[in-house]
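Researcher: Final request for today, and then I'll write up notes for the group meeting. The sequence and the SMILES for magnesium ion follow.
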Amino acid sequence: MIEFQAVTKRFPDGTTAVDELSLSVEEGTITVFVGPSGCGKTTSLRMVNRMVEPSSGTILVGGEDIRTPHPAVLRRGIGYVIQQAGLFPHRNLLDNIATVPLLSGWTRAKARARAGELLELVGLPAELGKRYPAQLSGGQQQRVGVARALAADPPVLLMDEPFSAVDPVVREGLQDELLRLQDELDKTVVFVTHDIDEAVRIGEKVAVFRTGGLLAQYGSPADVLRDPADDFVANFVGKDRGYRGLSFLDSTGLTLSQVPTVTIGAPVEATGSEWVLALNEQRQPRGWRSPGSAPSAALREGDLHAGGSLHGHGSSLRGALDAALSSPAGQGVVVDDTGAYLGVVSAETVLEVINRGSAG
Ligand SMILES: Nc1ncnc2c1ncn2[C@@H]1O[C@H](COP(=O)(O)OP(=O)(O)OP(=O)(O)O)[C@@H](O)[C@H]1O
Ligand SMILES: [Mg+2]
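Model: Predicted protein-magnesium ion complex:
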């Protein structure tokens, strides 16, 4: 959908902001450009709508060289959202949102009506439409910025650190809102941030840039966290990337072990030094018998030690680790789709898989 072909930007003072960038942004995805300050993220983004002209290389949008259409026509198909929203202070919200439709020749009434719809789409009450930007919170202003970028229904949305000026709680709300919107609208979104957490949270693809305008790695969030291309990326994604990456790794490759099991209602012997897992008739785990439990003619649920969280086979490794860590027996219980017992897994096993760098 957006294709960078060996794109370089060198500013007149000799700074190479972007160096031979080749990357293709898939249609209908959120792709995040992430990297430290000054690594060329904004410059890369602004070359797409020709606010910055490349020194060399080619950019295609929808298969067409961006130099072919008139810049004004190109930009009508590309929404642009920046930090602090960049709203016009002397226009009310409806008129801010209606900016591009009005420029494209819509009637004022139609543009305003559309603006009202968009306000609601980004989660703001329509009554706010008459307010001015200064009368909104930072988070609300960002929502209006998103609404304005969506006004002409462009297939492409460029977002440059749109949420970095708001506090972390509001930021998370805005991220959720963007994901919800994207579900509905299916735009091709390029999102710039220097926050790796934000990048892996909202990106389907993540491009990690390094200083000097070089692309260090391009892949899914799981790829980047699990398998950093080099030390720079490894450092950038952070030391706790193993745990972060867990939620992206599925656990189908985990080797399961078995523990002794007994059935609720059946006669049981005394346990030895091992934990014994109690199942119901459907073979669903109900709890554990601790080591040294007395024999019983009929095992009752009330005699059991409550078990930790259960882990659905094949779901994320983070769930497997949670199950292992919360189990009184130190063994996370793994179940199938029907909730029936399949086996157990220890925290060590999960960590081994992470250290191997792959769930298989
Ligand atoms: N107009 C300009 N003239 C000269 N150098 C520039 C110009 N604009 C940007 N640069 C330089 O190009 C490099 C990349 O800048 P860019 O704004 O793309 O970085 P960035 O990754 O967006 O950084 P940040 O995270 O701080 O926003 C920087 O070294 C910057 O100083
Ligand atoms: Mg920038």
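Model: The first helix runs from residue 41 to 48. The mean pLDDT is 88.
Researcher: Thanks, that's everything.
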